[in-house]
Amino acid sequence: MNPIRLNYAGESEKFHLSVSFNEFQFNIHQTLCYNFDQLSKIHSLNIQLRYSQFRSEGNSLKMNESTTANPASVRAETLAAKQLKWSLKALLKGTLVAALAWLTFGLPAGQRDLAFKIFGGLAIFLYGMKEMTSAFEILAGERIKKIFDTFTGNRILGFIAGITVTALIQSSSATTVMVVGFVNSAMMTLTQAASIIIGANIGTTITGQLIAFKISHYALMFILVGVLMNFMSKSKRNRKLGQAFIGFGLLFVGMDMMKEVVAPLRKSEAVIRLVASLSGSVIAGVFVGTIFTVILQSSSATVAITMTMAASGLIDFPTSVALILGDNIGTTITALLASLPARRNARRAALIHTIYNVLGMLVVVIIFPHYLKVVMWFTPVEAGIARAVANAHTIFNVVNAFIFLPLTPLLAWICYLILPRTEDELYTDSSFLDKRLLEIPSLAIGAASRECDRLSDLAGQSLNDVLELIEEFDYSKAARINEREKLIDSTEGDIIMYLTHIEEKSITHEESLELVHLLHQANDLERVGDQCENIVMILTDRCERKISFGDQAVQGLREMSATVKEMYFLTRRAVESGDRNSALRVLELEGRLNFLEKRNRDEHVDRLASGECNFAAGFFFLDLMEKIEKIGDHCTNMAEMAAGASH
């Protein structure tokens, strides 16, 4: 038989794989998740931020004049990370397709049927796992948000949160990717992330313990109940629960299919030789388990297959445990891939997962014979080898947790040693929006809310600066406001896009209302930024024309400025903390702002009539009052919504 031939051609946008052997040839042409227009926009924003960095000092804003970050290199580094992620994923897909193609078409007819059954059973198992996990993610979404909000105060609570969330959604990879998203969004510290990841490793062992129960003859019953709930229930929650039942049943259907095929393989000479080569080396078993999990992207699938082979007598217990150790290394690749295009700190979070599991594996390999005795001591003889394999998985992660949980600061320190802090990190935007959180709408809404708070900070800084410009004009401060306005515009656009993605998910009525509130809030904040930019244009023109205002006009603008500044401060308090009294106070101040605007207009007319003021100065004066009053209107819009939401 001719060897398989792989031809790989990769570009930044496309991936082409050609697989050839014997008379068969497969061509795969795939365009991977590209929206380069949007990507350019994001990186253009990064370039802009490199040269327009701001830091808060008290109530005012100062410019960081010196920055050594190179925008071109930062953009190239980010693009390279994304391309590396795409290439690795493409290579994994290509390898899997090539292996499936060879096993399916390059084998004799009898062996081909076995291959179909093995991979068919594996496909059913993986599909069942995916359905169950996605259903539990939605069912437990709000609960997950509360758990992360409540239990990340210290490492013990974070550890408990990791166990709980992973037990709820039945996927440590999903939990770890979420944690990477939190760190990337600056919603979680690296030490907090470490404790949650350690807990997630224990939570994922529950799947193996469930599979070890001999309940496969109930699999069809679970599927039947799930289908009935899906077709007959009007409740979205019950339909999702039905989906979880179907997924749970399919796990055991897939397991049974693989068991039927694996048992006869004990007589195959090729399989016997392969198993013999693994039995002689723990490291070889770890390596095979790692590679298998990397390809399948599911540690639960590797555990299930290992348990199936062990229960069928195809592999012995020590080999099973070695494969399980490798499985724990392979599962870290998912988070590493997810972190490649993310910020440096998110990569550190994924690296913690890898370092933790690798160190734990090395400890167990050193004491491997004693570890096997400990597992067998915890496993009754009548429980069977499948239970022993599940226990080996659980004990490994529990022992690791006891060793490394007190050492989470050390794990974080090691990550900083491998990925040191760079100057560029100081000049990256701090967006809270992370696509990894979109799978749990309640978490994504929380991220969008925090991003709106960040947008509120930016708009507030511009308002503070522009009101100072009215008192004393400064060209450098005016330039900073204009630069910040570009960031405000792009941030609002990102929020709207993110909210649109959330809306496409399965969300509750309450979550839908929250999306509407956030959408209006982002829009009003962006309009505040627009009005600040308009005021800068008016003041710049006035300065260039050397037009001045009289004392009475200056005092009138000063009173309106103080009122709108107080309105904005109270609006932020009402929106961010749900303070209804602050919202009602904003509505009262809106009346005062309107009164001041009318009084100033009347006084201006009197000054024109008496000749104290000329028409050119009057034009600028009226225009400024109009813009300030519009900022007050946007504050009122947000306050009204906050007052309604706090009922």
TrEMBL record:
Its main location: membrane. GO terms for cellular component: plasma membrane. Keywords: Cell membrane, Membrane, Transmembrane, Transmembrane helix. It is found in: Cell membrane. It is a multi-pass membrane protein. GO terms for molecular function: sodium:phosphate symporter activity. The chain crosses the membrane at residues 90-108, 114-130, 151-169, 175-198, 210-229, 241-258, 270-297, 350-372, 392-419. It comes from the Bacteria. InterPro entries: Na/Pi_transpt, NaPi_cotrn-rel/YqeW-like, PhoU-like_sf, PhoU_dom. Gene3D superfamilies: Phosphate transport system protein phou homolog 2, domain 2. One of its GO terms (biological process) is sodium-dependent phosphate transport. Residues 454-537, 557-641 form the PhoU domain. PANTHER family: SODIUM-DEPENDENT PHOSPHATE TRANSPORT PROTEIN 2B (PTHR10010:SF46), SOLUTE CARRIER FAMILY 34 SODIUM PHOSPHATE , MEMBER 2-RELATED (PTHR10010). This is PhoU domain-containing protein.
